[in-house]
Design goal:
36% of the residues lie in helices and 27% in strands. By secondary structure, the chain is of the alpha/beta class. It has one domain: P-loop containing nucleotide triphosphate hydrolases (Rossmann fold). The strands form two sheets. It has a six-stranded mixed β-sheet, sandwiched between helices. Strands 2-1-4-5 form a four-stranded antiparallel β-sheet, covered by helices on one side. Strand 9 and strand 10 form a beta hairpin. The model has no long low-confidence stretch (mean pLDDT 95). Bound molecules: adenosine-5'-diphosphate and magnesium ion (MG).
């Protein structure tokens, strides 16, 4: 799947420039965190990376293949802030995806265990707590065996305990060499998870640095101001 390369990526909708001049290269199988203020363009960039939105300028490729090509999209999965649960049991949510992908339903147990939900297998998925639903959404995404997992603010609605459980699921996925691209504006979470940080402001990327560099000394004025607002 890797590298992901964007060249001069831009997106205009109804004459409004939502993304502009984005040059990025994601090269390793670790956790990339995208940060920035509300409205910076993080979710839209994630959708472009996932091939859901075609850019109007520039290019975006995964290992040389267009992000929007069907073969590339099949190797990726995405989880949103508000998990979308099918109106059936916890285990049936996983079985549904396994069936779609022609995989054995006997794998259901493995994915339920990875989410710590084996004891909730028969419970209607929509009756699970917010944290449990998010872990199920991630387990269901992992059941697609993606090369890349996109997470758009997956813990924004969760308490600290539920957040940590989701994070450990994400870490374990990344240890299984699944590339993680995660959007968050939770700096503490970014510090816990990020190997590299992409910072966005006003529809563009102001810097892309290793986590170590970013958290010790962000290079762009926008990131410095974002970080200082949180410290105060
Ligand atoms: N389909 C769309 N049409 C027009 N404007 C949009 C559309 N989707 C998002 N936007 C605008 O693009 C900007 C960036 O949105 P978004 O990527 O959701 O920000 P973030 O995820 O960083 O909070 C916002 O100003 C939003 O209103
Ligand atoms: Mg967003």
């Amino acid at each position: 799947m890797l590298p992901l390369v964007t060249k001069q990526l831009g997106l205009s909708v109804d004459n409004k420039q939502l993304l502009h001049n984005i040059w990025l290269e994601l090269t390793d199988n670790h956790v990339t965190v995208i940060m920035g203020h509300n409205g910076a363009g993080k979710s839209i960039l994630l959708r472009c990376m996932h091939g859901l939105i075609e850019p109007t300028e520039g290019t975006i490729h995964w290992a040389g293949c267009k992000a929007s090509s069907i073969e590339t999209r099949k190797k990726q999965a995405m989880v949103f802030q508000k998990p979308l649960m099918l109106n059936r049991s916890t285990s049936a949510n996983i079985e549904y995806v396994l069936k779609l992908r022609d995989k054995s339903e006997s794998l259901t147990q493995k994915y339920l265990q990875s989410a710590g939900l084996e004891h909730k297998a028969d419970q209607p998925a929509r009756s699970l707590s917010g944290g449990e639903q998010q872990r199920l959404a991630i387990a269901r995404a992992l059941a697609c065996e993606p090369g890349v997992l996109f997470l758009d603010e997956p813990t924004a609605n969760l308490d600290p305990g539920a957040t940590l459980k989701v994070e450990s699921q994400v870490i374990s996925a990344s240890q299984q060499t699944i590339k993680i691209v995660l959007v968050t504006h939770d700096i503490a979470q970014a510090r816990r998870l990020a190997d590299d940080v992409v910072f966005m402001s006003d529809g563009t990327v102001t810097e892309h640095s290793s986590a170590k560099t970013f958290f010790s000394q962000p290079a762009s004025a926008e990131a410095t101001s974002f970080m200082s607002a949180y410290i105060r």
